[in-house]
Each structure stands twice: as C-alpha cells, then as structure tokens.
C-alpha cells in the first residue's frame, strides 16, 4: 500500500494537474462511466464534529475509493485546520487498499479546479473583471485557479467579514492584479465572472445586482440550508453543475427547486459541456451559473494523480498492508 502524506501534496500536485484530473472525471461522469455513491454526513455528537464519507467509482481510470473526514470546529485551538480529510483508494480488481492520501490541500485544489473548469467552458472569452465573494480558507485557491482561465485585469471582492479581505488582496498583489474591496452592487455591476465561496445560510447576491453575460461559479453551498444566491438569480441563469442529484439537494439549486422556480431538467452537468454534448454558453448576454457542490469523484481523481506522481518521482512511501 502507498502512503502520500499531507505534507507531500504541495510538492506533488499543481493547480494545473488538478484541473486536468477534475475535468477528466467530470467528462467521465457525463459519459456515465464514473458515478458517485450517496454521501454520508453526520453530526457525531462529540467535539461538535461533522463527519462523513464521499465515495465513488471511475471505471475509466479504475479509481475506486472514498474521502473521509469533516469539520472539527475546535481544531483551531489545537493548531490544526478545522477541515480534516483523508482519501482511501482501493484496487478495483481485488478490493485491496491501494493508497492513503492526505486530503486537506487536495480538497482546496480540487474545489478551485472545479470553478476554474466552469470559467474555462462557460465564461465569456472577453471576461476582464473577476468578482470574489468570500475570503475564507478556500478563497485564495479559487482566485489563483480562476486567473489561469481568463485575462482578468482587475479583482473586485466582498466579504461578510471585511477584515478577512486582506488575504485576497495579498494574492492579487502577488498576481500583479489591481484589487478593490467593494459593495455587492458594484461587484455585480462590474464583474464578468463572480466566484462565491462562503458558508452563508442566506442569499448574498440578488438577480438585480448581476449584469447580463456574467458567469457565476457558486462554490460555497455544499449542505442543506446553505445559500449564496437569491433563488430568482439561479432561476434566471442557465444552470450547470457537477452532479444534478447533489445540486438539487445540497447545492445552490436546492432553494430554486424548493420554490419550483427551477426543475432538474433545467440543469446540465458541466461534463456534458466538456464532452461537447452541450454547447455551454449560447450568447454573450446569457447569465451562466455553475453550482459546484463537490463530489467524491473529484477527490479520487486528484488523489489518484498524486499517487501516480509520487510513484513516478520515487517519493511514494510503500508499506505492507
Ligand atoms: P472558512 O470558514 O475559511 O470561510 C468562511 C467564509 O464564509 C468567509 O468568507 C466568511 O466571511 C464567510 N461567512 C461566514 N459566515 C457568513 C455569513 N453568515 N454570511 C456570509 N458569509 C459568511 O471556509 P472555507 O474553507 O473558505 O469554505 C467556504 C465554504 O465553501 C464553506 O461553506 C465550505 O463548506 C464550502 N466548500 C465547498 C466545497 C465544494 O466542493 N463545493 C469544497 C470545500 C468547501
């Protein structure tokens, strides 16, 4: 069995490697050669923790396994990240455990890859202004991955806790892009692409604040009850997602579905755009929206790539198991 510890991931996997792996698995999902199993997420009644599994099987790449972990809110006091996860990969021919891979950095990289892929396929090619909503742990990964997809000339940002915006400003400075902290009205009025990555449980951005032609990558809503976009904005957009079953239950679409403003038939898997089965954006004025709910197959894809890189570079730790 191979072990790839958390502290090796940064050396092994670039954002570009993650984009390739996630794009490939989104395409496999659309071809029905890869599928996710139902997600388990439980409040365990200890340490205020939320613990769960995301699992699946990608027949094309023989990636079988799960990501397990969750949210431990008191970890900060212990000097640890609140989100903790590990990926377990199994041999699809024998069921033997093939690898254990640190999943913390990979989660941030695969989530950023998903929104970057949506920007690559759905944003207007002439997009110049990137709007960021959210300034937590994931936000800098999102920003770094997004700027690889379009020739952005400016970053606008808003956060519920404005004091956190300095971390995005620092990254923008490093990327040599002008940065402004703005109100939501201005962010919506000037942005060509907007990424939302917050843990909000109430709508932040309204339909009236978004201009025609915008691409929205909604990445924060991954649980029942969370919400970043007004339901009417989701209904007004052409909606894409990683997985429809998750979008309508735990994703940004859940509220528009509940209010019958949107139906499952209105939602397209991003994989269908990647494989060319769906044309994606149909006009420069269309508002496109990607509901990125985060699927287990993304985790298996990036963890498999990390194992392959560790093996090819001779850094993989092998143990008898
Ligand atoms: P974080 O705790 O580091 O940051 C939280 C962010 O949400 C901050 O910007 C904070 O200001 C904002 N926020 C907190 N309370 C808010 C409120 N009441 N209203 C509006 N904004 C509020 O979290 P993170 O690690 O950056 O993750 C952000 C979100 O992304 C979480 O909801 C997380 O579950 C989700 N996530 C999604 C995926 C996916 O695949 N889609 C993957 C990882 C994380």
From TrEMBL:
GO CC terms: cytoplasm
Pfam families: OCD_Mu_crystall
InterPro entries attached to this UniProt entry: BhcD-like, NAD(P)-bd_dom_sf, ODC_Mu_crystall, ODC_N
Keywords for the protein's UniProt record, in alphabetical order: NAD
Gene3D superfamilies in alphabetical order: NAD(P)-binding Rossmann-like Domain, ornithine cyclodeaminase, domain 1
Keyword NAD: yes
Keyword Protease attributed: no
Domain of life: Bacteria
Similarity field: Belongs to the ornithine cyclodeaminase/mu-crystallin family.
Protein name: Ornithine cyclodeaminase
């Amino acid at each position: 069995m191979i072990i790839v510890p958390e502290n090796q991931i940064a050396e092994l996997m670039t954002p570009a490697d993650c984009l390739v792996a996630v794009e490939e698995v989104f395409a496999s999902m659309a071809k029905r050669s890869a599928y996710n199993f139902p997600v388990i997420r439980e409040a365990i009644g200890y340490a205020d923790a939320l613990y769960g599994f995301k699992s699946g099987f990608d027949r094309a790449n023989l990636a079988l396994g799960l990501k397990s972990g969750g949210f431990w809110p008191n970890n900060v006091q212990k000097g640890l990240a609140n989100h903790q996860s590990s990926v377990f990969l199994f041999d699809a021919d024998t069921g033997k455990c093939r690898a254990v891979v640190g999943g913390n950095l990979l989660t941030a990289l695969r989530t950023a890859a998903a929104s970057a892929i949506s920007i690559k396929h759905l944003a207007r090619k002439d997009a110049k202004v990137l709007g960021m909503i959210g300034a937590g742990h994931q936000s800098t990964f999102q920003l770094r991955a997004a700027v690889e997809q379009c020739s952005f000339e400016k970053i606008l940002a808003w956060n519920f806790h404005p004091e956190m915006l300095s971390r995005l400003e620092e990254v923008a400075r490093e990327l040599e892009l002008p940065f402004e902290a703005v109100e939501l009205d201005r962010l919506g009025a000037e942005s060509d692409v907007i990424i939302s990555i917050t843990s909000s449980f109430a709508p932040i951005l309204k339909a009236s604040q978004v201009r025609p032609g915008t691409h929205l990558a909604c990445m924060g809503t991954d649980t029942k009850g969370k919400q970043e976009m007004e339901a009417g904005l989701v209904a007004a957009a052409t909606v894409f997602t990683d997985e429809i079953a998750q979008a309508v239950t735990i994703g940004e679409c859940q509220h528009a579905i509940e209010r019958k403003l949107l139906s499952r038939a209105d939602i397209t898997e991003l994989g269908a755009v990647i494989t060319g089965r769906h044309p994606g954006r149909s006009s420069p004025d269309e508002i496109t929206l990607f509901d990125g709910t985060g699927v287990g197959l993304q985790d298996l894809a990036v963890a498999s790539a990390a194992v392959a890189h560790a093996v090819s570079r001779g850094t993989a730790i092998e143990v008898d198991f």
